[in-house]
Amino acid sequence: MARHYVSCRINGDETEYLCDTSQSLLDVLRDELELTGTKEGCATGDCGACSITIDGVLVCSCLVLGAEMNGKTIETIEGMAKGEKLHPLQEKFIEHVALQCGICTPGLLIASKNLLERNPNPTEEEIRFWLAGNLCRCTGYNNIVDAVTAAAKELRGA
Amino acid sequence: MSDMRFEAPATVDAAVALLAGAKGITRILAGGTDVMVQLHADMVEPELLVDIKRIPDLHGIKKEAGGWRIGAAVSGMQMMDHKEFAKAWPGVIDGVKLIGSMQVKGRATVAGNLCNASPAADSVPSLLASGAIVSIAGPNGKREAPAAQIATAPGKTSLAKGEFITSIFIPDAPPHTGSAYLRFTPRTEMDIAVVGVAVSLTLDNAGKCTAATMSLGAVAATALMVEDAAKALVGSTVDAAALDRLAAAASAACRPIDDKRGTKEFRIKVAGVLARRVAAIALERAKGN
Q1: What ipTM was reported for this prediction?
Q2: Cα distance from A104 to chain B (closest Cα, Å)?
Q3: CB distance from B131 to chain A under 8 Å?
């Protein structure tokens, strides 16, 4: 069975990989490219732990085939901090204790970043609706909403 | 699954030829939000997956004479972000907004929602109420069919082997038309409709209803058109008595099952309650148009 050759851009780097038809993009990221920051929770698109963006669109990487990605631009959690410098969302998640076990955190950070790119000043309700597809079983969400609100404020320079 | 082929043709004709050449099970990959789950659960082992997103003709929301054409590869998020379409058919957008999470809406398509043929599909009742017509390509050429004729039973469609939807045409809403969709779910997001109701209604300049359609989801094996909706509303100002008639028509049309999400009796009752609420929203929107 021939494998698929895929050329795409991941976190700014030109990337090439081979994958089987049955491999999800999540499988490719974790098993072929060792980008294990993106987590598998449910593998059915319900939990959001595997959130990434493709051409700027927030998606669950478990619901995408690796074979589909020719020419696409992908952003994962590994591209969020610039070297040692954390993204303001990452800093605020730490400051507000918006995580405990950490499995949902990469997905929540990616989803929150995508929200703030579309809407720099979201209301609490807008944050909660946008993040409804990212399940966290530890925090109870309030600290996450606070962290996103604080990061939005910082990013707006307010 | 290891022998599964993946193809991403650049034209509808090439996709048709690929599907016609396959002997076994095939699946169209548009948004993939249902197909990927089925693959993961080993519910289906297709011989061939055809990704239709590399076909330029299947992208875009285009204004045509008499209506809107939505390509089969258009995601829910693209529909929500299309301000003109969202203004013309807010009921369709109400349904799209309720599909899964933002992540799922970033990929899932309305054509896929229709073809997955879940009775509870959130975008389908509004499509039916809008009078949507789907364009289909297949080994015997192209054809059109009302959206209401696609799903035939849970998970089953009227599409023949090798056929797939290329676009959905939603007719222009006449002036003073309002549409809306509501569903009942225990949670506000990330849930499956226990009952869904879509209404579209048109008023004349005096505020009298001249046309009305209603479609129900999750109360029968497929989404239903309620023919008595027009009888209930047309000629009225959509007043309390008309809403009573509409609610009764909605409840009378239900042929629900009992399941873990709701009993038959609950679904029949809630269909009437939602019909009333949805019509009130559609009325306000019609007045604003």
Answers
A1: 0.96
A2: 14
A3: no
